[in-house]
Amino acid sequence: MKNNKLYLQLFLMFVVATALSLIFTNGGRYLGKTFYESQNYNNEAENLVYEFSQYVFNTPTEEEFKGALTVSDEEMYDYRTYYGSLAEQIQNIKEQYSSEINATQDQEVIEAIEQERDAKIADIKKNFEDDEYVKEKILVIKKKAIQQKLKEIEREKKEVLSKYNHFAYEFKDEKTGEVYRNGDISEKSVFKKQVNNVGKNLSGLYPLNYYEYDSMGILQDSYTLEQDLSDISGVVTVPASWIANTHISNEKSAFIITKYVYYGIILGGIISFVLLMTSLKPTLEQFNRKFQLRELFERFPIDIRIVATLIATYFAFIFNDSFTGSIQKLIYYYTDNRSGFLTDFIVTGVISFALIVAIVFMVVSIWVSLKEQRDLEKIWPETFTAKFVDGAISMFENRSIGMQSLILLLVVFLGGFGFAVVMTAGSFGVFLFYMFLFVVFFIPALYIFMRRMGYLNRIMQHTENMAHGRLTKDLKVKGKSPLARHAENLNGLREGVRNSMNEQAKSEQMKTELITNVSHDLRTPLTSIITYTDLLKNPAITEEERKKYIDILDAKSNRLKTLIEDLFEVSKMASGNVEITKQRIDLAQLLQQAVGEHGEDFAAANLDLRINIAEQPIYARVDGQKWWRVIDNLIINARKYSLEGTRVYVNLKSHEGNAELTVKNVAKYELNEEASQLIERFKRADTSRHTEGSGLGLAIAQSIVDLHDGQLDIAVDGDLFKVTVSIPTDK
After folding, report:
1. Pfam families of this UniProt entry (predicted)?
2. Fewest CB within 10 A of the end CB: N or C in the chain?
3. Cα(204)–Cα(49) distance, rounded to whole angstroms?
4. Residue 628 falls in which region: left (phi positive, over 0), alpha (psi -120 to 50) or beta
């Protein structure tokens, strides 16, 4: 039941749409008009005046065509040389007849052929010798054209007078006094049209195309005679008494039937509209149904759906116009082509109805989509227009690529459009011009496009290889195009990836070494602690041994504590989870204090410590505690790893706005590592790891210096080890 109501509502909508379409299209020729006011009938009267202007009014005589009977020097020259020069024409004639002469043995036939040949040669010679002879031949052709045109005009005149015999008319030429009359225009009429000054919009035009009457086709020129009709005026009527005996009676009946059918459609549209607004008022829920075609439609962006709806509306209007037009044809020509017009009526009606139903559901779909998401800012990014604009903007972010792409698209479009024009025109001249443009513009553009696409494919292949870790050789950089710049950047990226992979491999190796070193440095004191703890459990040991074991446990525990604290501190610094409080501190004084604490240790290690500190204060904004740790770590590092009996140099100076602290010593152990690797965590010059220390001293110092925006550099020259720390001074 619900479906029946829906179908009825859709049919009523179709009736309303048909009525509206009718009012603005075919209905304008019928609604509110009589048969004699119709456009068709007025057109027939206008056609009468036009055809009379060509074949009845002031028709030309042979005398009036005398302007065509002139022969120019150019025409005579063209006539003579149409088949070539005199010598060429004579040679051609002889060659034509020689084959005929050779093909027969009959002397009489040969003589006849030779006479014909000689007559033609004599005629050709006379053409080149006598102007009057040529002129007379051309005039014969032109006179023939005039005579044929006059016969044609007379024949057409009879047909026109017979064709419009159901009209009464009276026209008068004021210049000649000639009157053109049919019937009595004063008789009671159902139609009347006054025509003043026929020549205002019309002229009697009589063209002569000479080539139509020239058997050889030599004369290509034409001549047009124009007759003045400005003095001709008159009246066209349809006497009431004539209608019954003419085709007008049937046309009038068809007009009246069509008009009332159209009135019926409009009345049906009004009734349908009233029903749709009252008892059969449709609701959004009725049409808001989900089905496969709608789901497919809703996959498209909202603006594409709107455009599709507008296009469907346009075609619905076109087919509805054809549908109402087919009603008119069915009434007018029903007896002539009954099945054809009936088929047209059914097909256009069904298509029109289907389109209107589709439009209803399309509008409902769009309305629901807009209703569910009313925020334009959310709708706009999902539209095809927004994506198209975004794509265009993206294309022109690199202006060179944008312009080149636009030019290529334009060339391809014009190439396709030109091909369509050539195929439509069918002209050899147009084809040659197109081929010129094709060779000069299209092929070079296609070549450039293919090269660019080939280059782009190589770049994409190179990128894919990089993505899979296959670092092939560098791409060849060609020219200065955006693709070339991209290839150059890709080569740089490839080198960066190679370095990154090397660094990653190096990092993995260092990570392995780090775990090994940490395990060794933690396990050594821990093993001692476990061992001596087990020894202390033995009640048989002496008090002196117990005291010795406890001292060893204390030393190993402190060693383990130092390792863990250094590891914890360097981890905090690596994560950036360290706060520093900067103050203005005299670095010279801080260094003096640090060196003073380690003086005895250096003497005990048989090392000569040489201090060189500037006499004036060197100020910098640092965290005093953290900077003390830097100095302390560097001095302790020098004490542990310096060769006995050598000198250790500690210098502090101000240089180019920076405070520079330098510690130099001769290494006790052979330095096989790179200088930069000695800063890594748990890296020690004593690779056998027999000396005490965490291996974190330089790493901690490096982290503290980085926190102060300073710089720590290490240099190794043979066994000479040098650390330089620089930090901006505060004057």
Report:
1. HATPase_c, HisKA
2. N
3. 11
4. alpha
